[in-house]
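Q: What changes when octanoyl-coenzyme A is included in the input?
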Amino acid sequence: MYEHLKIEERGMVAIMTISAPKSLNALNSTILKEIGEYLDEFDTHRFRCLIVTGDGEKSFVAGADISEMATLGPQQGEHFGKTGAEVFRQIETLPCPVIAAVNGFALGGGCELAMACDIRICSDNARFGQPEVGLGIIPGFSGTVRLARLVGMGMAKQLIFTGKNIKADEALRIGLVNAVVPQAELMDKAMELANQICANAPLAVSAAKLCINTEYDMEAEEAIAFENQAFGMCFSTEDQKNGMQAFLTKGKCEFQGK
Ligand code: CO8
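A: The predicted holo structure follows.
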């Protein structure tokens, strides 16, 4: 049992809801620890997709907990940042895809959490931003790393230097989210995406995630070689045999993840 996480399981999809309503789901050390523990235990054989969302209709995550950070010194600040960055990296490297269903404010650490996920969709009331410089700090949960990769250097610098929030439609326009839907439809949309992913061969999806993440930082030659190897590995799976056989016999394959 977690104090600040609600976990739900719908078939092959797990849903992790961050819940700290009094602070608009702001991330404190306890929540970061709980997310880390949940991901450590995450059953990648049973679940083929994880959805991350926030409790309530107002906020996904309104940032790192400012009341916890207010009195930190440099070493403690670095430690807090490192803790968040490590947990977010766990999300990014989880073998199955992770969808952020952003249901409101995704500010500071909340925007950084969404960016650590593979796919972001949001409700029409969502707001994104990196307001840290207005608090005398910088994005510390890898926001300076991931925002530029997602929306380009110029837009990332504008968002981080001004600290201004943007609305859902602007987040869509700059490619920070993949889709905007009415709030009442957010979880249905997230589940629809998740189920589309779950219907595919999980080892192949996982290999594709590893490839995209890893190859991003490689030179082209090295990246292509990495993909070649992963592609070859797919041919050692039963799913590849069954998937291709099903196509050739005009059947449907229920992938087993083997
Ligand atoms: N931390 C702590 N408490 C928060 C936070 C937060 N990030 N956000 C909101 N709360 C609390 C408020 O203090 C308030 O508490 P109370 O009712 O006790 O006064 C409650 O949540 C409700 O908030 P508001 O009354 O402010 O609600 P509004 O609807 O008026 O405003 C906003 C909503 C716009 C979301 C507003 O709350 C806000 O601006 N929040 C702060 C957003 C922010 O600056 N986030 C970035 C934080 S810094 C960060 O995330 C850095 C990440 C990297 C860390 C690296 C470590 C070194």
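Observations recorded in class: The chain has a mean pLDDT of 97.
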